Amino acid sequence: EAGVTQFPSHSVIEKGQTVTLRCDPISGHDNLYWYRRVMGKEIKFLLHFVKESKQDESGMPNNRFLAERTGGTYSTLKVQPAELEDSGVYFCASSPYEGYTEAFFGQGTRLTVV
Amino acid sequence: AQSVTQLGSHVSVSEGALVLLRCNYSSSVPPYLFWYVQYPNQGLQLLLKYTSAATLVKGINGFEAEFKKSETSFHLTKPSAHMSDAAEYFCAVSDVYGNNRLAFGKGNQVVVIP
C-alpha cells in the first residue's frame, strides 16, 4: 500500500511568486492534515480536511494560503504571493477515520522563498 | 490549548549508551501522546503512542516511553544506542477525541558517537 505522497520534494521560488504543493493521502483515508515547520521552530498544524470539507483551518497563517481537497482525494496547498517567511518544510498527513489514533505522514515538501 | 516541551535541540549519545529524550506536555484534557522519528530525507514515522491504556509503551526499534500523569511527562528511552538511531525525534500531543490535531515539540536531533 502506498504511503502519503507529497510533491514536489523541494521547491525554490522567488518572493512574490505562486507555489502549489500537492499531497496524495493513503487511499481511503478521509482525514487529511497539513503541517508546517519553519526552520528552528516546532512543527505546527495548519488545517484539517474531512473528505472535501475543511474541518479546522485555525492554523492557516494568513489569506495568502489556500488549501483545497476536491473530491476528497488529493489536496493542494497554494501560497500566493509567497513571502520569505513562508520558507520551511510542509508536511501532509492522513488518517482513515475520526477517532483513529495515528496520523501517517508524508516526507514533506521543502519550500525555499528567495 | 495543548503544548509540548522538548529541551536540548541536539543530543549526543555514545554507541551502546542509554538514549533518554525528555518530553513534558501541557493539556487541559486527557492527552494522547506520541513520539515520531524523522530519518534523513524521510518523512515522520511513528515510534510509539500512548492512548490511555498501559502507561509503559513499547515501540519500534527498541524504544519505549512511560506516561507519568503526575509529572506530565512522556520521556523516550532506549537502553543501548545504535548508529542507526541517528535522527530527529519529535514528541507530540493530541486530545482524547482523536482528531489528530497534533501539537509538536521542537524536536531533538540525536547524534550517535561511535
Mean of residue pLDDT values of chain A: 94
Q: End-to-end span of chain B in angstroms?
A: 41 Å
Q: How big a fraction of the residues of chain A is strand?
A: over 45%
Helix tally of chain B?
0
Largest sheet of chain A: 7 strands, mixed
Radius of gyration of chain B: 13 Å
Global structural class of chain B: mainly beta
Count interface residues per chain for the largest interface.
A-B, 28 and 25 residues
Low-confidence stretches of chain B: none
CA-based shape of chain A: globular
- β-strand percent of chain B reads over 45%
Model regions low in confidence, pLDDT < 50 over at least 5 residues of chain A: none
Name the average pLDDT of chain B: 92
What is the element string of chain B, with H for helices and E for strands?
EEEEEEEEEEEE
Tally of DSSP helical segments of chain A: 0
Choose one word for the global shape of chain B.
globular
Number of strands of chain A: 11
Tell me the series of helices and strands of chain A, N- to C-terminal.
EEEEEEEEEEE
Which radius of gyration of chain A do the C-alpha atoms yield? Answer: 13 Å
Largest sheet of chain B: 6 strands, mixed
